[in-house]
Automatic annotation (TrEMBL):
This is DUF6699 domain-containing protein. It comes from Tetrapyrgos nigripes. Residues 86-225 form the DUF6699 domain. It comes from the Eukaryota. Residues 1-67 are annotated as: Disordered. Residues 10-41, 58-67 have a biased composition (Low complexity). Pfam families: DUF6699.
Length: 235
């Protein structure tokens, strides 16, 4: 990429493996639309919020209906055309909005379990990305995975810096151009609000999110038929 310097992490940031094969950006599906947000706030909330069971009526459950297996929170359910939230994974999730209302997600809602019944761990895979680049979600409250835990894990995991060896293992010239373009677009996007923050983002170098080649719109999560495999979808 003439006139530009691509930066890398000085130390490997992936889990220890013998070899790591980066994904092929050209294999990603194509779509459009995104929404971004600035820095995500601290979220150490140890309270488990639950709806009252008193009264003659019951509140609508925020979880997807399923006759068997785990039920995802409605803001995590996969939909290509109408995802529950607007979230550009290049940017922090703190001002992510609800798709239907363009309003922010209430803090109380972000503290709700991501899955019903609640789980203490969650692993997400992304189609066409290296299996070594899975997203591991852990509970910030020490008990169960919350909605906020999922969004933050997606954002921060995809911000992992790429090593020079990973970058140089991209064999296709077209794929290399896509990654480089995604890197430039990302730091320019971040710099739209604050040029100094954008410059810091540029200095941070290529990250895993750049291997998505611009497909950074969060579409949700699906559960495979085994009830244990979770897939993160983006476009």
């Amino acid at each position: 990429m003439p006139g530009k310097h691509v930066r890398f992490a000085t130390l490997p940031t992936l889990h220890t493996t013998s070899t790591v094969t980066p994904p092929s950006p050209s294999r990603l599906s194509h779509s459009s639309h995104y929404y971004g947000s600035p820095h995500s706030p601290s979220y150490h909330d140890h309270r488990h919020h639950s709806e009252s069971r008193h009264g003659s009526t019951s509140p609508r459950s925020p979880y997807s209906y399923s006759s068997r297996g785990p039920q995802l929170h409605k803001y995590l359910v996969y939909s290509h055309s109408h995802p529950g939230v607007r979230f550009d994974v290049r940017l922090p999730p703190s001002t992510m909005t609800i798709s239907s209302s363009s309003t922010y997600i209430p803090q109380r809602t972000l503290s709700e379990p991501a899955i019903s019944p609640p789980v203490a761990s969650l692993t997400l895979s992304i189609p066409h990305l290296s299996p070594h680049w899975r997203i591991f979600v852990t509970p910030s409250n020490g008990v169960f995975i919350t909605l906020r835990d999922v969004f933050d894990a997606v954002y921060y995991t995809l911000r992992t810096r790429i090593t020079e060896s990973e970058y140089r293992s991209i064999r296709s010239p077209d794929d290399l151009k896509r990654v480089n373009r995604a890197y430039v677009d990302r730091y320019r996007k971040v710099g739209e609000r604050d040029k100094y923050v954008g410059e810091a983002e540029k200095q941070g170098g290529v990250r895993r999110v750049d291997f998505l080649a611009g497909h950074t719109r969060f579409e949700g999560i699906s559960v495979m038929s085994d009830g244990r495999t979770y897939v993160l979808h983006m476009s």
